[in-house]
Amino acid sequence: MSRRVRAYLPNGRFLQVKCFMSQLQLVLAQINTLVGDIPGNTAKVLASAREVLERGPVDAIIYPELTLTGYPPEDLLLRPSLDGRIQRALDELLDARLPTTLVVGYPRRRGDKLYNMAGVIQAGKLVAEYAKQCLPNYQVFDEKRYFVAGDQPCLFDLCGQPTALTVCEDIWHPEPMAQARAAGARLMLNLNASPYHQGKQQEREAMIAERAREGKMPVVYVNLVGGQDELVFDGGSVVVDAQGTTRYRVPAYSEGNYRLQLDLATGHCDPSLLVPVPERLSAVYQTLVLGLCDYVTKNRFNGVVLGLSGGIDSALTLAIAVDALGADKVEAVMMPFRYTSDLSKNDAADEAARLGVRYGSISIEPMYEAFMAALADEFAGTRRDTTEENLQARCRGVVLMAISNKKGYLVLTTGNKSEMAVGYSTLYGDMAGGFDVLKDVPKTLVFELARYRNTLGEVIPETVITRPPSAELAPDQKDEDSLPPYEILDQILALYVEQDQSAEAIIARGFTREQVERVVRLVDINEYKRRQAPIGVRISQRGFGRDRRYPITSGWQLGD
Hints:
By secondary structure, this protein is α/β, with parallel strands linked by helices. The protein contains 17 helices and 22 strands. The strands form five sheets. It has a seven-stranded mixed β-sheet. A six-stranded mixed β-sheet has the order 8-9-10-11-14-15, with helices on one face. Strands 20-19-18-21-22 form a five-stranded parallel β-sheet, sandwiched between helices. Helix 11 links the parallel strand 21 and strand 22 (435-436). The longest helix is centred in the C-terminal third of the chain and has 22 residues, at 386-407. Catalyzes the ATP-dependent amidation of deamido-NAD to form NAD. Uses L-glutamine as a nitrogen source.
């Protein structure tokens, strides 16, 4: 038996296609694109497809959301040459006349409206296009700034099977799936650029399963992989059957073409690939590694340099840098001062040796004294305060930036989320640099990640992990002299920064009024610092960057 269903075409018309039972040979092309490099991304699609076809025929190769521009292209979408560049890229894909179906994403203008589009290329023709209907405009997303939402389903004939298209956010809402089912679809292809945050893969699969059950059809979910500024796309592409069971899961954090045979009747996938979802610490660590690796390589830095203090933040940052780039592209510099302990010096040298990086020691004492001499008249009659402490940090910043300029290295700062939140950092000092790997990592998680990294090979000395944290900018200084214990601080920050709870709501949870009001006040008054801080990898649902936008100048009062 057969039945006829509608397949919607780019011109808004439709054709009738026959539906037969079938098994489909599919490839999930989990690729790492470069935002804005439309020719390079197009070449990557063609190279990927040709590599697949060299190993045998397939019915379709599915690529991530906005394949040709990369994601998120932000205001590149406003450039007047965008339309021409996209058309040239599509023409190149059409002219290749590959003997398979390509499903790719790209921005596409119809009249004066720009759509986030998924297109289907078969036998040198663009046979179907789907405009994303659900445009995310929350957290790190602002697609409504650029795109107009579509309102129609799109079905195309894939080897006799009526196959529907959706794009990313569409799978989080029931309407696009309901439309596709009503139109007669038997399979859903969902193109994604879904960034990581902790627990995200579990959230995705739960939602995909819900949609698959509602639509009574398998869902093929293909996600982007790679770092783009502060966002990291972790891959984890899956196939979920009509009962909501995940049947196929590819490795996270890994670029590749993953081939399978999908039986539409049973949802069975051959081969039966079901790579485990990474454990929490493993996922966070791999996210940090991939985010740093892609930021450095895509921006063509020669390597990285960082100040290695003997503390846990710089120790973890160094380990991540080596895992991301290799020891030959990492330089660590100890910059001791009179308050730097022998333990810090020894631990820094020990870790550098364990990781095999270039390591040197440059005392900041002479330059500090030169600054103090130059400022003697200006400081006459004043007491010593944090000015002198900040001057030490700024001497270190100057040293690292000089090395950066001379060698073409990116300076890595080492501040964690807890410090960034309360302003426990020095502008133009330890904040001077181009990328902060730990920017969205609370201090308590820093300790967890350090211990996790040591399970892969002990590179962080135990004394670095167990000693009380200190900036060592004054005699016998400890972080908790001026901050609440990190176990308490991080809980308050999570409630205030990531969940937007009020001071009164946080106090009601059992924290003291004094602690809460002090922490909240510190967060608020240090917005100006965070605006000048380098970007860093986002791992939470609310990092300091794209998805938390508070005014610097504000009269907002603490309260409910």
